[in-house]
Amino acid sequence: MTASLAPVVSVAGVTRRFNDVVALDDVSLDIAAGELVGILGPNGAGKSTLLSLVSGQRKPDSGTVRLCGQDPRLTAARATLGLTPQETGLPATLKVREVVDFVAGHYADPVPTGELLEQFGLAELAGRQTGGMSGGQKRRLAVALSLVGRPSVILLDEPTTGLDVGGRQALWLAIREYHAGGGTVLLTSHYLEEVQALAHRVVVIDEGVVRADDTMTNILERVGLRRVVLHSADLPAADAVPARLPGVIRASREGDRYELFTPDADALVRELVTSGLDFHGLEVRGATLEEAFEQMVAHRSSDLLRPPATPARTATDPEAGAR
Ligand SMILES: Nc1ncnc2c1ncn2[C@@H]1O[C@H](COP(=O)(O)OP(=O)(O)OP(=O)(O)O)[C@@H](O)[C@H]1O
């Protein structure tokens, strides 16, 4: 991607192995200030490893990583960074307010604790020990902590896993506000609709290799298919629909509701109207990121839709810190 300013995050020719597993294989990526980038990939693709290199928690075996032009292992570089790892170990006996105050104490100009807790809907829990919070509340606190130091870049690894709809939307709002204020965001998520809703650029990693790196618009255009949704009692089984309706290359059916995939939705709608078919509830929709993703990593696309499992680690990594 082109960037007129020096990139905020620069990954150049990076390889990282864990014993005989090549988690990242010659990955290069530049992220400019103010970008909101979604990183997608099946389980074990290398996403978390990439974030751990950018945050300086791990070192690459070869290649270079720069955060705001510096080695991310330096304290000065890390001060520009906010991080929400996939799992956050909160000290169970500390109160929410105390945890935020503790993290805030590491920064010169932190967001006031009350303001941050208010923004994340946690103000009423300020006096509660973190051990007494629900999973979703802990997740909200983990993301709030990434913003306490007014970072110029945040790395969010599966930020909304386990959140209910309200919690997820509140986090989306916080991420958008941060981004609107000029912040740079790298986000991984197994919820493709989340990446589609938030990210402007998508990087697809699979088996440690960058398979695609483009704007959301271009990624979606790669699919080249439109979805026509309708209800009908006149259509045959889904796999027989392409023979019945010219231009349909694939169909799925649930009861009398059909989703028809076609490169030319206009022609299909004309065909439906002139065919005399009895139908209602017609909708025409663009491709989704999920469809684009399925095409890019077709051999293992079902993995992406599984909730993230705890990866089977074959070795302990002394550099992994508080991961
Ligand atoms: N500390 C470690 N020791 C051994 N192998 C590791 C370690 N960390 C990661 N790996 C392996 O490196 C590969 C990439 O893992 P990584 O956690 O980066 O994937 P991911 O894309 O974040 O996956 P997920 O979506 O499941 O979180 C996997 O094969 C994983 O098992």
UniProtKB/TrEMBL annotation:
Start and end residues of each stretch annotated as Disordered: 300-323
Domain of life: Bacteria
Entry annotated with the keyword Chaperone: no
UniProt topology in membrane: Peripheral membrane protein
Keywords, in A-Z order: Antibiotic resistance, ATP-binding, Nucleotide-binding, Transport
Taxonomic source organism: Sanguibacter gelidistatuariae
Keyword Transmembrane helix found: no
Domain ABC transporter residues, every copy: 9-232
One GO term (biological process): response to antibiotic
InterPro entries to which the protein is assigned, alphabetical: AAA+_ATPase (IPR003593), ABC_transporter-like_ATP-bd (IPR003439), ABC_transporter-like_CS (IPR017871), ABC_transporter_ATP-binding (IPR050763), P-loop_NTPase (IPR027417)
Name listed for the protein in its UniProt record: ABC-2 type transport system ATP-binding protein
Cellular localization per UniProt: Cell membrane
Signal peptide range: none
GO cellular component: plasma membrane
MF-aspect GO terms: ATP binding; ATP hydrolysis activity
Matching PROSITE patterns: ABC_TRANSPORTER_1, ABC_TRANSPORTER_2
